[in-house]
Design goal:
Belongs to the peptidase M32 family. Zn(2+) binds at residues 254, 258, 284. Keywords: Carboxypeptidase, Hydrolase, Metal-binding, Metalloprotease, Protease, Zinc. Its cofactor is Zn(2+). This protein is an all-alpha fold and 488 residues long. It folds into two domains: 2-144, no CATH class; 160-486, Orthogonal Bundle (Neurolysin, domain 3). It contains 20 helices and three strands. It has helices at 2-30, 37-55, 58-66, 72-88, 93-116, 119-141, 146-151, 160-181, 196-209, 245-264, 280-294, 298-312, 322-326, 340-359, 367-379, 405-424, 428-433, 438-447, 457-465, 472-486; strands spanning 219-221, 227-230, 233-238. A three-stranded mixed sheet has the order 1-3-2, with helices on both faces. Strand 2 and strand 3 (233-238) form a beta hairpin.
Length: 488
């Protein structure tokens, strides 16, 4: 067993260094002084060089060839180490380091261009990022589909063709539901002033309600909310608009879903090859089920109404109508603010543009026009400014091509998990009515979260839910929920 033991020991250090890299990224988005961007890019490139050298070390291949698994845990470790090694050895070290440096620097340039509504200022950088990502994809794909190579980084075992077919099945029912809701009377949004300190205080409270362990995490502010880390150090961020408190609260709950997945993985799996979420689609299933099926449910919204009154005073909506306020359907520009009916349509737009970008049908220079044309066709609105269009998301500036479709996959997975959860915990709404999601959290922890990446993404969802993955549970849930709330 010497080969297996040596491999696992070596990989433990690699995983620890990967956590350090993640902490640098967290700091860049929360605490780093703006003038440090160039140096941080150099630091990240240097650490990426160290990580790439470890992942491509010839001994890893030798250990993999000689290692024999003793348990299912060993087999999962070998599966994930082999997958990472096979990918890493195809990417030249210089390319990996340059991508790390450029995407670190690109993030700050994107933020500045976004604030100035200046696409032209950012296009040269984006063009450089895309060129390097195409080069990376070509190296990994070895003659295969470039976009499939990108998707594999975030959802192993899934292809663009499979995702495209899934979206083709989903779109008609989503559009039909949206069209029915277009004639429904929507309640007004909350109005008033909601001070930042009170929003953050309530966000801390609700994060704890949903199981976030502040002894092993913290809540900070960022331009784009995110979760970072795993194991004993998992951090989340949110953002605040003093005229609109629901964005802060639900961004927090969303990130808590990501974070508790990481916090609840069995401690003995920490700093192993599968001691984190198994894929971004599975990760997103946790954030979306926390945010939508649990926290936007009618019973929980009545509880939340009381907590908001306690913090902010009387609201412009009554408790019994709060679910309609929180789930109001409105066509908008921003993906992260989209209701559940529109959300997947935002993802489908990005997926198709990415696929064209890596398939050679679209160039960066034409990306803004393609975005604006497609958005108008899908949403019936003209994009009014770049921050509501091409520049709204950080993903492309930092090279996360292939990431967007996992958001929609996460919704599909959440639909499957919710159907199973409701089957196994039939009185869940009674607990949610008093602000107690613990029965749902325990079910998710036991059936999915504690296992980390022990199983493949598909196996993880099907093991937890006991059903074959399908879009039907999600679409049925949306029809029932929004039909009931708005009488369509």
């Amino acid at each position: 067993m010497a080969a297996l033991d040596d491999l696992l020991s070596f990989n433990h250090t690699t995983e620890a260094l990967g956590q350090v890299m993640g902490r640098l990224g967290w700091d860049q988005e929360t605490m780093m002084p703006p003038g440090a961007a160039e140096q941080r890019g150099a630091e990240i490139a240097a650490l990426e060089g160290v990580l790439h050298a470890r992942r491509t070390d010839p001994r890893v291949g030798e250990w993999l060839a000689a290692a024999e698994a003793r348990t299912d845990v060993d087999r999962a470790q070998l599966r994930e180490i082999a997958r990472a090694h096979a990918r890493a050895v195809k990417v030249p070290a210089e390319l990996a380091a340059e991508l790390a440096r450029l995407t670190s620097l690109s993030q700050g340039l994107w933020a500045k261009a976004r604030a100035n509504q200046d696409v032209a200022a950012f296009l040269p950088t984006l063009k450089h990022v895309v060129a390097l990502k195409r080069e990376e994809a070509a190296a990994i794909a070895e003659g295969g589909d470039l976009y499939d190579a990108m998707i594999a980084d975030y959802e192993p075992g899934t292809t663009a063709a499979e995702i495209g077919a899934l979206f083709d099945r989903m779109r008609p029912r989503l559009v039909a539901l949206r069209d029915r809701l277009a004639g429904a009377q929507m309640p007004p949004s909350l109005a008033g002033h909601f001070p930042k300190p009170l929003q953050l205080k309530l966000s801390h409270e609700i994060a704890a309600t949903f199981g976030y362990d502040f002894d092993h995490g913290r809540l900070d502010l960022a331009v784009h909310p995110f979760s970072s880390g795993s194991g004993a150090d998992v951090r989340i961020t949110t953002r605040v608009d003093e005229a609109e408190p629901l964005g802060c609260l639900y961004s927090t709950i969303h990130e808590v879903g990501h974070a508790t997945y990481e916090q609840n993985i069995a401690p003995e799996f920490r700093l192993t090859a599968f001691g984190q979420g198994v894929s971004m689609g599975v990760h997103e299933s946790q954030s979306r089920i926390y945010e939508n099926q649990l926290a936007r449910s009618a019973p929980f919204t009545r509880y939340l109404h009381g907590r908001m009154v306690e913090h902010f005073g009387p609201l412009t909506a009554h408790a019994e109508d709060f679910a309609r306020v929180i789930n109001r359907v409105q066509t908008g520009y921003i993906r992260t603010e989209a209701d559940e009916v529109h959300y997947n349509l935002h993802i489908m737009l990005r997926f198709d543009l990415e696929r064209q970008l890596f398939g050679g049908q679209l160039e960066v220079e034409d990306l803004e026009e393609a975005w604006n044309t497609r958005f108008a066709a899908d949403f019936g609105m003209a994009v009014d400014k770049p921050s509501n269009g091409l520049l709204q998301d950080v993903h492309w500036p930092v090279g996360l091509f292939g990431y967007f479709p996992t958001y929609a996959l996460g919704n599909v997975y959440a639909g499957c998990l919710d159907a199973a959860l409701r089957r196994d915990v039939p009185d869940l709404d009674v607990a949610l009515e008093v602000g107690d999601p613990a029965p749902a959290l325990a079910w998710l922890r036991e059936n999915l979260q504690r296992h980390g990446g022990l199983r493949t993404p598909r196996e993880t969802i099907e093991h937890a839910s006991g059903i074959e993955i399908s879009e039907a549970p999600l679409l049925d849930y949306l029809d029932a929920k929004y039909g009931g709330l708005f009488g369509v």
